Amino acid sequence: MAKHVAIMGATGAVGTEFLRILEQRDFPMASLKLLASNRSAGRKLAFKGEQLAVEELTEKSFKGVELVLASAGGSLSRKFAPAATAAGAVVVDNTSAFRMTEGVPLVVPEVNPQDIATHNGLIANPNCSTIIMNVPAWPLHKAHPIKRLVVSTYQAVSGAGAKAMAELEQQARDWAAGRPVTKAVLPHQALFNVFSHNSAVAENGYNEEENKMSRETWKIFHCPDLRITATCVRVPVLRAHSEAINIEFHEPVSEAEVRRILARAPGVRIVDDRANSYFPMPLDASDQDDVLVGRIRQDPSISDGRGIDLFVSGDQIRKGAALNAVQIAEML
């Protein structure tokens, strides 16, 4: 049944990706409303051969809207999502505003689609790094319960938004032209550099991104006893995140069994060519729906065969954000 849809934050990196995915997947819509700040009001965005005008986001924007895909920042979601749900819309929110709120389902469709049915007008989209880890980890956990996850991320600047992507591109142009390399969006130079994820460090010494990966996974898996530790790092890549994942199972699991499970897992594509040293890369993962999984190998530091290592890459803007939300909307 065709829905009256609104995109909140339509001019951002995720908002424009919403438009691409809705068109590519031919999502059934009776109407589409593009919402953004007053600075962007009047701007035109292409959709199915037409130019749609962006409207200013206000609390009155949701009259007649049935579905809101939101990616305008946490503060704006907290301000406007209640108005949208009060108007009768279901909000699929891509920010961190409601992820850990009791009663709000936090959903990765390949993992916990059943949680969608528990919504009260609001469904939260997980953090991008959490999604990219959970897509391959869940089918393994379902078959052979995981005891511990150790993850190190290599996160693209796209996670900081379109302006951060533009800044990395400009830094490359400036360096090539012999001009000084400057920064304004990210806290450190991204070009030729690697730095701890640009989120606040909590009292436990972990930054916000690292804590999100643990807390969100506990909620999505319905497994609060799962032990998780993360180190999240920003790298000079435009738009796809990579992660090195070390898995310790409760029981011995062979490399062959892991390959068998992942070969059938939804949202996963194995890229693991040892002969040619060809494994998941962000360049290959960009613009792809699937999470690429490779470097599948037994962990020799766990002597009883309970350890497996993986390396994965997934498009942060796509599966890590917009596609996951659209998949949720399709299931609605």
Which helices and strands, and how do they pair?
Elements: E1 3-8, H1 13-24, E2 29-36, E3 44-47, E4 50-56, E5 67-70, H2 74-86, E6 90-93, E7 122-124, H3 128-143, E8 146-155, H4 162-176, E9 195-196, H5 208-221, E10 227-234, E11 240-249, H6 255-264, E12 268-270, H7 282-285, E13 291-298, E14 307-315, H8 318-331
Parallel strand pairs: 1-2, 1-5, 2-4, 5-6, 6-7, 8-10, 12-13
Antiparallel strand pairs: 3-4, 8-11, 9-10, 11-14, 13-14
Poorly predicted parts = none
C-alpha-based Rg, rounded: 20 Å
Write down the overall geometry: globular
Number of strand elements: 14
Number of helical regions: 8
Counting helices, strands and paired strands, the structural category is alpha/beta
Arrangement of strands in the largest sheet: 3-4-2-1-5-6-7
Measured as a percent range, the helix fraction is 25-40%
Helix-strand string: EHEEEEHEEHEHEHEEHEHEEH
CATH superfamily of the largest domain: Dihydrodipicolinate Reductase, domain 2
Q: How confident is the prediction overall: mean pLDDT? A: 95
Alpha carbon gap, first and last residue: 10 Å
The CATH level-2 architecture of the largest domain is identified as: 2-Layer Sandwich
Strand content: 25-35%
| Largest sheet: number of strands, sense, barrel closure | 7 strands, mixed
Task: Provide the domain count.
Answer: 2
CATH class of the largest domain reads Alpha Beta
Kindly report the CATH topology of the largest domain.
Dihydrodipicolinate Reductase, domain 2
